[in-house]
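Example (one chain per record):
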Amino acid sequence: MPKKINITETVLRDANQSLCATRIPIEDFVDILDTMDKAGYYSVECWGGATFDSCLRYLNEDPWERLRTIRKHMPNTKLQMLLRGQNILGYRHYSDEAVRGFVRKAVENGIDIIRIFDALNDLRNIEVAVDECLKAGAEAQGVMCYTKSPVHTLEKYVAQAKELERMGCQSLCIKDMAALLSPKEAYDLVKALKENCSLKVVVHTHSTTGLGAMTLLKAVEAGADVIDCAISPFASGTSQPCTESMNYTLKQFGYDTGLDEDVLTKIKTHFAPVKKKFLENGQINPYVMATNADGLIYQVPGGMLSNLIANLTDMNSMDKFDAVLAEIPNVRKDMGYPPLVTPLSQMVGSQATVNVIVGERYKNFPKEILSYLRGEYGRAPGEVNPDIIKKALGDEKPMTERIHVPDELPEARIKAAEIIGCKPEDVSEEDVLSYVAFPKQAEDFFRYREEHKGVKVTYAIQKVED
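Predicted structure:
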């Protein structure tokens, strides 16, 4: 009997986020959702990450309505989201009450699997989200953010997996955001995880450095249970390896993916003109479709690289690009080798840029780096350079306990009610959570929604009946 290997489709979230900054509106994919529901995917990643912010900020969509719409059209497929632990979907720590509320409402609105990570792999920062996910009846997928450094060893990853299992996670995701995981490293890591814990192992990588498809194949050979792929128009480059190609290859090796190739062709055919449109209007830069092997040296994720180029261009300082790129590993070492994933990737990149532009290392500190050095983001994987701490904080001692934020929900409900023009008790819990996560963007969207009440503006803000 062929060995079963499951495939998660990422076109509605990470592939979209990686290639065009999560700008695909629901009108561009709602007509294919019923077909996607018949593909045989293990799950479809469709929410979380940057989708929430992008819906409010750029697309004039209610992210909760988007989720309910997808759920309505895909009743037979597990829907999956990405959650940043105590950061929820934002870039700071939120209260435990906000985290629990967000997780609970995500599940109520249609999410089946929540992939929960912390940028520092500080598992204290995912405990609340995992606990609430389990209480809500969804699958809690714990994450190890994969990176390379003297303090990130195979033994430490195995220990982290055991801790995730102890916390109650039902599955484990190796999240290789910078495409650093080589085929051999994937094989060794997956094998070690399968030998030392009983969790399902999911492998998530990108094609940025050219290793992605080879890495997934070796991970499958080592015993991985699920791999993340993207339908071909939105595959490769800074996105995931191609769904159709991986399906074709795995079937030749005797694996059963459960995917219907005729349905995959229909999905591909639907998304091909969507990609063409985004290329033509400049929302997909050809740069992100290319292979960039420099990532294996600098460990810079594709999205971070794109942001760095944009920022230096805005400052008329692209002549400093190579110097900033070379400075990033040095800053990362000084900061205790944090994985370069949101929000740490942006923070390390900003500090490296400041060091180079100013012409003196650590003369100035971005406020986020100061917060990091105070311990407000959690525990660094390795030792932070004590000279840098002294220079930044003086005699102030970094905190060692997990930061606790006061409950923001009551005040958010009052402010949301003022904007919407109703009584606080009449504000939906979803709107309260939207305001907590992104106050300015939610306020703008609430006003937009009121102005267009009764007008069919986008499919996403129509009322979807259960």
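Caption: The chain has a mean pLDDT of 93.
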